[in-house]
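Tutorial handout. Part one gives the primary structure; part two gives the three-dimensional structure as tokens.
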Amino acid sequence: MKTTFFLLVASLTSATLTFGQTEDTTEVFSESMDETYVEEDTNSVEDTFESTRVINGHSTETLRKGVMEFRVEHRFGDIGGTDGGIQTLYGLDNSSDIRIAFEYGITDDLMVGFGRSKGTGNPYRSLLDGFAKYKILQQQKVGCPVTVTGIATATYSYMKASSDMSQVSSFPLWQHRLAYVTQLSIARKFGKRCSASLTPSMVHRNYVGADDVNTLFAMGYAFSFPISKKVAILVEYYQTFQDEDVRKQNTNSLGVAIEWVTFGHNFTINLTNSKGFVESQFIPYTFEQWSKGQFRLGFCIGRKFERE
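Part two.
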């Protein structure tokens, strides 16, 4: 199992670095290189996180004005447990979820995004998501001690409604296909070596099962530990809060990752027990447990473009 995993990581990393070195000088957009960006406000503390996402959830970062990012995210099946092991090549034969998205910086502090996910089927498939994200405060060397960003997200499932009225996916009304997430991400960069954030979150789903609640509160925790200029270790955890009598089968989303930043690309390889993407999915609908081997390999490739 360990040999297979490390061979996969090595091959993915090699492919990404090779892909990242290919340039097309005739394209309308040019690479957005952090090295060429000169900070106008030298008092600001920039790059608390290297990406607009940590693993599953948002970071406090926003795209600069005029920058577009294309993101491809993939998550495989369980590495261990009853659905994992050698018969599925430790989850590589299966696909838990896939997401493709475009994001754009309207100003240096305001960005929007739109994505489409395959969906995990527990309970939704065919998911569209859109969000707006605004940086309210910027951490400063002298002055404001933290960066604060507000995020508003909406998701819509256009899957075929189930004929079983006991299922959440039966969707008696079209409004039942909608879910909303409101977040306030608060982060601080400590020197040049690490960053941490807290993200209080409220998830509201218009239609849920009898053993669930429409509105769910959660707290996200994220940490970034750079081990070189281009490589960092990420940890992310979302703790949900609900009555003891409901949502007994749900667990909390926990992920660890290695992040590379190379030539206009951001590449992350992660291990997490959550199957789906977007907060309205991985916060309320994570059921798997690390202790049972129910965690999976995933990756995200983000490519930034900037108009000349």
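Part three, for discussion. Confidence is low (pLDDT under 50) at residues 1-39. Residues 2-307 form a domain with the Porin fold (CATH 2.40.160.40).
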